[in-house]
Structure formats: C-alpha cells, structure tokens
C-alpha cells in the first residue's frame, strides 16, 4: 500500500485517503498561448518506469494538494513537499540521486 506524508497537516495517509492528480510540475500556458503549447499542456505527460513527480490531494484530511516524489516500479517514496514549489527541494533530489546514481532533475518545458 502506498503511504504518503501530507506536508501540511503532518499525517501519514494511505492511498485510500488521497486522490491522485497526475504529473507534477506541468508548465501551464496563459491566454496568449499557441495551439501547440495548449496541446502540450493538455496531453503531453511523462510515464516513466522509475522516479516520478506527482500531485496528490489529501482528500479525507486537510483537503490540500501536495507533490510527491516516488518510484513507479517499487512504490518507494522519496518525499513529499508543498504544491506551490516549482521544483523538488534539494534534499529530495539528493535522496533520489543517492539511491539512483546517474539520475538528474529534468527541466520541465
């Protein structure tokens, strides 16, 4: 079972208390965007086997959205953090790099 720590209320919640919201750090475009940019926002997503950054909502708790870094093949959770951040905290990136040599943070377009 997947258990994630809510960074807002401090609860370690199992997946039945949470609602998945898709990939984190997706670039959103404003009203003046091109058709290609809007298509990218709507449809282009990563689907990795390995480290992935996701949005989660603590639906049966505080109700707030947060981000989680986890491995999709092992369900190993590297950490959770505020949804208002534009990239994972350095401590989470360091934790991933320590367990996955060669891994690097990719810039999201």
UniProtKB/TrEMBL annotation:
Transmembrane feature ranges:
none
Q: Which GO terms describe its biological process?
A: tetrahydrofolate metabolic process
Q: Name one GO molecular function term.
A: sarcosine oxidase activity
Q: Which domain of life is it from?
A: Bacteria
Q: Which InterPro entries match?
A: SoxD (IPR006279), SoxD_sf (IPR038561)
- What name does this protein carry? Sarcosine oxidase subunit delta
Q: Which organism is it from?
A: Aliishimia ponticola
Task: Cite the source lineage.
Answer: Bacteria, Pseudomonadati, Pseudomonadota, Alphaproteobacteria, Rhodobacterales
């Amino acid at each position: 079972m997947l258990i994630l720590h809510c960074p807002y209320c401090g609860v370690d919640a199992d997946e039945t208390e949470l609602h998945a919201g898709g990939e984190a750090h997706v670039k959103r475009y404003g009203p003046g965007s091109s058709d290609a940019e809007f298509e990218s926002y709507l449809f282009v997503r990563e689907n990795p086997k390995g480290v992935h950054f996701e949005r989660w909502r603590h639906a049966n708790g505080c109700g707030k959205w947060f981000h989680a870094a986890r491995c999709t093949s092992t369900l190993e959770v590297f950490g959770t953090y505020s949804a208002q951040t534009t990239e994972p905290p350095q401590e989470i990136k360091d934790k991933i790099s320590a367990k996955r040599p060669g891994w690097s943070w990719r810039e999201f377009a």
